[in-house]
Design a protein that fits this description.
This protein is α+β, with helices and mostly antiparallel strands and about 400 residues long. The chain is built from ten helices and seven strands.
């Protein structure tokens, strides 16, 4: 029916024609009550019924024009038909269509005009007395048609609103899921970068030291190789912990080790000192009770880790580094400074993901991160992490 509306309306028009023709043979005022077959419609009434049914075929294409034509045919029948045929049935169907296709104010205006016009003409100009039940029936049927069409239109609007809201909620849910997946991928990428870049940089340095002193100072080479072993073990442990977050909930093999924070900052700094990078650390978190929030603690640790890794990779020989973690009012400020070393450094290729990761971490917590060269040489990283 939805795919072929014109054919559907043609079937409806044929059914209306059959009902009007059958109704024209019924006499509601027979000697023994309503009777069928006791009267016959005149040819002009049959022609009006045929035209009225024909225009109903186009009721959804031009609803107001069809209603106007149906009203005109009904008025002709009301003023000339004797006995009267139910041509007004096509007006009832056309008025229902207009009410179902337009808004409520338009339905009120057109419906009242149609009801008053047809009923008034039937009472004043028709062959029947003004109080005849047929005249009251015209008023009742046209009123019910307008009310039914308005109810159907309201129901369709309500269903469409629910469907549109459900589709919008589905789209929003899909977008939220994609956003969460993207955020999780970024978070895992940052963690993997921090872990791999830090430990691989240390392994690279210590392996270079071991290769350099292997022949002349085997004891120092063994010590460097021991640092390589420790750094690689730490890298594997942190990678296992990070990848463990991807396991399904309830997996007994998922690690339960807490995320690193400032509590293990000394161990982190020691790995760089063993790699030959002098580092001075100042941590002043003030007299406020309780530890830092977990997200802030992890972000501060990762910022220091990435900054020291960059110093070790990009600074020249003999570079000295200062790290400070200080609570200033409602925030924690992390500063990592280096003097650039005694000789120009050879920049290693890289995509700059470490600096981007630091900015993403601080930005996710509502903080800021600045990284850039210092006046006179060296590099400076300064991050501010607000506390809730």
């Amino acid at each position: 029916m939805r795919g072929h509306p014109l054919a559907t309306d043609a079937v409806l028009a044929f059914g209306a024609l059959v009902c009007m023709v059958l109704g024209s043979f019924a006499d509601p005022h027979g000697p023994h009550g309503p009777a069928f077959g006791t009267r016959n419609p005149d040819p002009f009434s049959l022609l009006l019924m045929l035209f009225g049914a024909a225009v109903l075929v186009f009721r959804r294409l031009r609803p107001r024009a069809v209603l106007a034509v149906a009203c005109g045919l009904s008025l002709l029948e009301l003023t000339t038909g004797e006995p009267r045929a139910p041509v007004a049935m096509c007006t009832v169907i056309a008025l229902y269509t207009v009410a179902a296709c337009t808004d409520r104010p338009t339905t009120w205006r057109i419906g009242l005009l149609t009801m008053a016009g047809l009923t008034g003409v039937a009472m004043l100009a028709g062959p029947l007395p003004w109080y005849a039940q047929e005249n009251i029936g015209i008023f009742a049927w046209t009123g019910m048609a307008a009310a039914a069409g308005d109810a159907v239109r309201s129901r369709r609007a309500f269903v469409d609103a629910i469907r549109e809201r459900a589709e919008r909620a589905e789209r929003t849910r899909d977008e939220e899921a994609r956003r969460r997946v993207a955020e999780e991928r970024l978070r895992i990428a940052r963690d993997l970068h921090d872990v791999v870049a830090h430990h691989i940089a240390l392994v690279n340095v210590q392996a270079g030291v071991a290769a350099h002193v292997m022949d002349k100072r085997p004891d120092q080479a063994k010590e460097a190789l021991a640092h390589v072993r420790d750094a690689s073990r730490s890298a594997l442990n942190e990678l296992r912990a990070t990848v463990g977050l991807l396991r399904q909930s309830g997996d007994p093999e998922a690690p339960t080790e807490p995320a690193p924070g400032l509590a293990v900052l000394d161990e982190l700094v020691d790995t760089f000192r063993h790699a030959g990078l002098p580092v001075e650390v100042i941590v002043q978190l003030g007299p406020e009770p309780g530890p830092l929030p977990a997200a802030v603690d992890l972000a501060a640790y990762r910022v220091v880790q990435e900054a020291l890794t960059n110093v070790r990779k990009h600074a020249g020989p003999g570079a000295r580094t200062e790290v400070s973690v200080v609570r200033v009012g409602p925030s924690v400020e992390i500063t990592v400074l280096d003097d650039g070393g005694t000789e120009p450094s050879v920049a290693e290729p890289g995509g700059g993901h470490g600096l981007l990761g630091m900015r993403e971490r601080t930005g996710a917590l509502g903080g800021t991160c600045f990284a850039g060269p210092r006046y006179g040489g060296g590099y400076r990283v300064h991050a501010i992490l607000p506390l809730p």
